[in-house]
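fyi for ur records
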Amino acid sequence: MNKVLGILCLAFMCLLPLSAGAQPITYGPYSALSIDRSVVEDALVEGKDLYVKINEAYWNSEFIVKASAMNGEAYSQWQNGTAEMPIKVYRSTAKQKQGYTYRISTSGRFVEYWTGGKLILHLEKVQ
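which gave:
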């Protein structure tokens, strides 16, 4: 019994550094600070444009994007005059972006994607 417990503890201790030193998820110049994998499948950066691949169960949801120079505060205003940009998910296959959110282009260092009052993706521009 003690040998089995000792082996299990040793195995756990050997694996611990691997998970602690895991590489952050990056998308082009962005690093994911948090990501809800039940909603977000992937992200795509094309030049200055950012698209987020959404789980098909959420395609009918409305998403809100916020951008800022400082983490979680002083949100920038979008062209619509507000700090919150509502976006939807492409349904057409014409642009080969079916399942991705509409394009966002921002100079903000931090970008937040929200749906249903829940933060689903938080990105930081690191490059």
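Residues 67 and 107 are 8 Å apart (CA to CA). thats all i got for now
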